[in-house]
Amino acid sequence: MRKSVKTDGSVKEYHYGGQTLVCVASDSAGWDHICVRVKDQERCPTWDEMCAVKTLFFEDDETVIQFHPAKDDYVNNHPYTLHLWKHYKQAKPPRALVGEGMFDGESHD
């Protein structure tokens, strides 16, 4: 996470593409965590909005993820909030599995 980011759980507002993004940054138990929602809108943030938040909070070379947990682990404190996560020792899958060559007919078993 960028050194300039305060991870004290305080609410910050950022403007992007004519929208106000409401963000809460925290770090605990080895995880950096950003909650993101669009102010005064009943919708989830778009991909581009989440990318903008990623750029605000994390360095370009950091991999950040969104989880889709098991149904028994769902937590929904706000219906239009998405989350970005980064573990301090996070491993990531091989590049070919997350983009390059993914849909070109190659087998990735």
Note down, in words, how this protein is organized.
This protein has about 110 residues and is mainly β. It has one domain: Streptococcus thermophilus LMG 18311 protein like (3-Layer(aba) Sandwich), CATH 3.40.1720. Helix content is about 10%, strand content about 30%. Strand 2 and strand 3 form a beta hairpin. The longest helix is centred in the middle third of the chain and has 11 residues, at about 45-55. It is globular, with a radius of gyration of 15 Å.
Instruction: Outline the low-pLDDT stretches.
Output: none
State the domain count.
1
Rounded mean pLDDT is 85
* CATH architectural group: 3-Layer(aba) Sandwich
Global morphology: globular
How big a fraction of the residues is strand?
25-35%
What's the total number of strands?
A: 4
Looking at the structure, the CATH topology is Streptococcus thermophilus LMG 18311 protein like
So what's the CATH class? Answer: Alpha Beta
End-to-end CA span: 33 Å
- Could you give the order of the helices and strands? EEEHE
Subunit arrangement of the protein: single chain
Spatial sequence of strands, sheet with the most strands:
1-2-3-4
Q: What value does the Rg take, in angstroms?
A: 15 Å
Percent of residues in helices: 10-25%
Structural class: mainly beta
